[in-house]
Amino acid sequence: MNKFFRILTPVLILLLLFNLAALPPVLAGLLDLAQAENLSLSSPGTAELKYESAARHLPWRTDLWEQAGLMALKDENLDLAIRLLKKPAHISAMGRLALGDALFRTGDKQSAIEQWERLRADGLGSSQLYNRLGHVYYDLGNYDKAIEAFDIAQKLAAGDADSRFILGLLLATRNPDQALEPLMQAAQLDPKLDPTVQDLRHGLNVALLSSDPAAQLTGAGRTLVAQNALTLGKEAFTNAIKTDSHYAPAWAWLGEVKQILREDGLPELDRALALDPYSAEIRGLRAVYWLQANQFEKARDEFQMAVELEPEKPGWQISLGDVIARIGDVPGGLSHYQRAIELSPRDPTYWRLLANFTVDYNYGVREIGFPAALQARALAPEDPQNSATLGRIYFANGDLATAETIWLQVLEKHPELSAVHLYLGVLYLQKGKYTSAHDHLIQARDLDPDGPYGRQAQRMIGQYFP
């Protein structure tokens, strides 16, 4: 017996020493895990480090690598998130969804699709999964698969406004009559979408007044372009041409949207003109093309043809007057603005455009622009654009105090108007109130970052506040 214990004792001591050596890493891992869980909401970056440390100390807890990856993704550390989420041999559906998110956000859309399609193949579909698939297929221009994915997503989640909204936009490019239902559902679920949906609804309803499928698709495309959905508008016009290759307006609008997208749209515009040389709409779109190419004489000729084809339309008069003034004939351009008012004297828009024209060219501001601005505001006193224009007239006439008062009153009710912030920025620079000028220029830039007022504000900030 004593001999047995003499043999056993060293073995027990070795086991005890092994356990004592192994115990601290386990305790450290458990401590890291507890800290990670406490920090997951407040500090995802630190939580990621703790989860990763816990995973190293607790190697049987392979799920901790996934948790670390989720925290890295939450902390916007995309490359680290991808590395951590790929580390375990098996990850949950949530982890694979997140891995796809990280890949998508780094621009690797094809790998994101592979991760998400694996979930679908495994029968683990959810509204979140199909919404993601819809977005990535939409970005890649695979609209058929995008429609399929968004349709499944909205069926799986009664409150998914996003999937319904984009599904409606996509359907407008193929079957405009089917687009309204998901769009209206989206607006009901998310009231912030309602103004956009109402504009889309109006445009699509007008398009559907025609019994011609090509005309319907072209009208739907115009509606999408008006909402700055340019690639979808292009898709609608392309589908209209596939429906009827002789429908001239579809060719013209396809050329215009290609030009906006920095593609060459002239071949399509030429095809449209060959199909229908007596369309004022086609002439107008060709004029816009030449304007964008800074070929003003060609634009003038096209607008002149539009005026001759539709002399009762005041919009063509304004367009022709604008391009004539750009070429250098300001009095000639002014006459077309005045002709537009003769054609539509009760529309405040044309009075306001006339007033702005006199300011832009410093021509007849007091005798023509001032009464025009007053008339515009009298016809539509609640329209802030009319008051903003009246402020421009006072500013151009040197009455800075009145202009300032008018513009500040406009901003009290409509602080989102970037143009008025720009006007005030210019006014305060002229008055030497640089702090106020800087504040309004910053707001103009931030409210209209990609538009003309925002760009002008940015140029002035760089010039006066380097």
Main sheet attributes: strand count, strand direction, barrel closure: none
Helix content class: over 70%
Which regions have little confidence, pLDDT < 50, spanning 5+ residues?
Answer: 11-23
Please state the overall shape, judged from the principal axes of the Cα atoms: globular
Report the sheet-strand fraction. Answer: under 5%
| Contiguous helical run count | 26
Describe, in plain words, how this protein is organized in 3D.
With 466 residues, the chain is mainly alpha-helical. It has a domain at 415-466. The chain is 79% helix and 0% strand. The chain has 26 helices and no strands. The protein has helices at residues 2-39, 44-57, 63-74, 78-86, 93-105, 109-121, 127-139, 143-156, 161-172, 176-189, 194-207, 213-226, 230-243, 248-260, 266-275, 280-292, 296-309, 314-327, 330-343, 348-360, 365-379, 384-396, 400-413, 418-431, 434-447, 452-464. The chain is globular. Mean pLDDT is 90; it is low at 11-23.
